[in-house]
Design goal:
The chain is an alpha+beta fold. The chain has a domain of about 210 residues: 3-Layer(bba) Sandwich (FAD/NAD(P)-binding domain), CATH 3.50.50. The chain contains 12 helices and 19 strands. Helix 1 runs parallel beside helix 9, helix 2 runs parallel beside helix 12 and helix 9 runs antiparallel to helix 10. The longest helix has 30 residues. The two termini are about 15 Å apart. The structure holds flavin-adenine dinucleotide. Flavin-adenine dinucleotide (FAD) binds next to helix 1, strand 2, strand 3, strand 13 and strand 17.
C-alpha cells in the first residue's frame, strides 16, 4: 500500500524513513521542531549494515565521497597497547564497509533523497493520533500514516518506555588529525574511554567518555580544552597525542549518554523508528544504523501489505528482536568498557586480548548482515 504519511522528527531515522517511503510511492511530510536540519557537529560511523540500506536509496556514493573508508576498529588500553584488532581478511572486509563521516554530510545525503517531501521546519508536534498530528501552534495535519521518529525523548512514544542515564557522560569534537591516524580506535582506561575516528580533510572525530554523575556539565558547549585535557590526563599513546594536540579553542560538545529502559517498536497503529523506539548507548556505533534499518524495513512492510495495521504487525515482528539484541549488547559493552577497578580492568583487557579473531569476526558478521537483507528485500519490491 501507499498513501500519505507524516514523519514526526527529521533526524537520521526520520529522514531515512521519509526517503524510503518516497521511493515506494508515498507522499511524505516531515515535521521537525528545529529551525534547520543541523545535527550536532561531530562525526559518526556509518557501518556496513547502514551503508547497505543507504546504497539501496542510491546514497552510498555520497557517503563514500564525503566519508573516510576504514578497515579496522582497534581496541587498545590507555597506553595504546592493542587489545584487539580485525584478525582476518573477512573482518577487514567488513570494516571496509564502514565510513567515518561528519554528521552534517550524512544528513545532507539523506535530505537529497527527500527533495520531494514536504519538509516542515520549526514545527513542534504536541500530540499524535494514528491519522493526524497536532502541532503546538494548534495546526492539525492529517495523513494515512503517522510515524514516530522524534528521538529518545519522543512525544509520540510517551511513557511506553523511559529514558535513563547510562551512568557515563561524553564529550565529542572534530579537530585536526594531529596523529595522522587512518584507522579508528577505542582506548580503554579505568572508568574512561577515548575514541579516535579519522575523517576526511585532515580532521579527526574524537569521543571522550567518563563515569560521572548525571548533569556534570550542564552547558553542552561549556567545556574548555583545558578542562577536557585535565579530565583525561591519565591516557598515554594515541589518546595522549590527541589530547595534547587539541586546539585551545576546540568546539567541544557534551551530552550525558542516555538509553531507553525498553524497546518499543509501535504505539498501536503508529510505528516508531530510531531512538524513539530503541534509544541505545553509543558503544557499538549502531544507534543511527538501527534507525536507518528501521526506516527501510518499515517502508518495505508497508509496500508488502494492503493495510497499515498488518504492515505494522510485520514491522514489529521483523524489528523487535533485532533492535533489542543490539540495544542490550551496546549496554553490556558500555558497562564493561567503563569498569574502573584495576583488577576488573586487568581481567577485561586480558580476556579481550585472548578472544579469538574468528569469534570477533562472527559477531561482526552477525551485527551487520541484517542491513544487507533489509536492502535486498527493499530492492525486490521493484
Ligand atoms: C556520542 C554518540 C556517538 C554516536 N555514534 C554513533 C555512530 O558512530 N554510529 C551510529 O550509527 N550511531 C551513533 N550514535 C547514535 C545516533 O547518534 C542516534 O542513534 C541517532 O542520531 C538517532 O537518530 P534519530 O533520528 O532516531 O533521533 P534524533 O537524532 O534525536 O532525531 C529526532 C528528531 O526529532 C525532532 N523532534 C523531537 N521531538 C519533536 C517534536 N515534538 N516535534 C517535532 N520534531 C521533534 C528532533 O528535533 C530531532 O531532529 C551515537 C550517539 C552518541 C550520543
Amino acid at each position: 500500500m501507499n498513501g500519505t504519511a507524516i514523519v514526526v522528527g527529521g533526524g537520521i531515522a526520520g529522514l531515512t524513513t521519509a526517503a524510503s517511503l518516497l521511493q515506494t510511492g508515498w507522499r511524505v511530510t516531515v515535521v521537525e521542531q528545529a529551525p534547520t536540519f543541523a545535527p550536532v557537529g561531530a562525526g559518526i560511523l556509518v557501518q556496513g549494515n547502514a551503508l547497505a540500506v543507504l546504497d539501496a536509496l542510491d546514497l552510498s556514493g555520497r557517503i563514500r565521497a564525503a566519508g573516510l573508508q576504514l578497515s579496522s576498529m582497534a581496541v587498545a588500553d590507555a597506553r595504546g597497547r592493542t587489545l584487539s584488532s580485525p584478525g582476518d581478511e573477512r573482518a577487514a572486509e567488513l570494516w571496509r564497509q564502514t565510513f567515518a563521516i561528519h554528521r552534517a554530510d550524512l544528513v545532507d545525503a539523506l535530505l537529497s533523497a527527500c527533495a520531494v517531501a514536504d519538509l516542515q521546519l520549526g514545527a513542534r508536534v504536541a500530540s499524535v493520533d494514528p491519522d493526524r498530528v497536532t502541532l503546538q501552534d494548534g495546526r492539525i495535519l492529517q495523513a494515512d500514516l503517522v510515524v514516530g521518529a522524534d528521538g529518545i525523548g519522543s512525544v509520540v512514544r510517551g511513557d511506553a518506555a523511559r529514558s535513563r542515564y547510562a551512568g557515563y557522560t561524553c564529550w565529542r569534537a572534530v579537530t585536526p588529525n594531529v596523529g595522522g591516524w587512518t584507522e579508528a580506535m577505542e582506548l580503554w582506561g579505568r572508568g574512561q574511554r577515548v575514541g579516535i575516528v579519522p575523517l576526511t580533510e585532515g580532521r579527526v572525530y574524537s569521543f571522550w567518555v567518563d563515569d560521572a554523575p548525571e548533569g556534570t556539565d550542564a552547558d553542552p558547549l561549556g567545556t574548555t580544552t583545558a578542562e577536557l585535557q585535565a579530565r583525561f590526563a591519565g591516557f598515554d599513546g594515541p589518546a595522549g597525542v590527541l589530547r595534547d594536540g587539541l586546539p585551545a579553542d576546540a568546539r567541544i560538545h557534551h551530552a550525558d549518554l542516555r538509553e531507553l529502559d525498553r524497546v518499543v517498536m509501535r504505539i498501536g497503529a503508529i510505528p516508531l523508528v530510531g531512538d524513539a523506539a530503541h534509544g541505545m548507548t553509543p558503544n557499538l556505533g549502531q544507534g543511527a544504523a538501527q534507525g536507518i534499518e528501521d526506516g527501510m524495513a518499515l517502508a518495505t512492510c508497508l509496500a508488502e501489505h494492503d493495510a497499515v495495521l498488518p504492515a505494522i504487525d510485520a514491522y514489529e515482528a521483523r524489528r523487535l528482536a533485532r533492535t533489542r539484541a543490539v540495544w542490550a549488547r551496546s549496554r553490556m559493552f558500555g558497562r564493561v568498557g567503563q569498569w574502573r577497578h584495576p583488577l576488573a580492568c586487568w581481567i577485561r583487557d586480558g580476556l579481550t586480548r585472548l578472544t579469538p579473531a574468528s569469534t570477533m569476526t562472527r559477531q561482526l558478521d552477525a551485527l551487520l548482515a541484517p542491513g544487507q537483507q533489509i536492502a535486498e528485500r527493499f530492492r525486490a519490491l521493484d
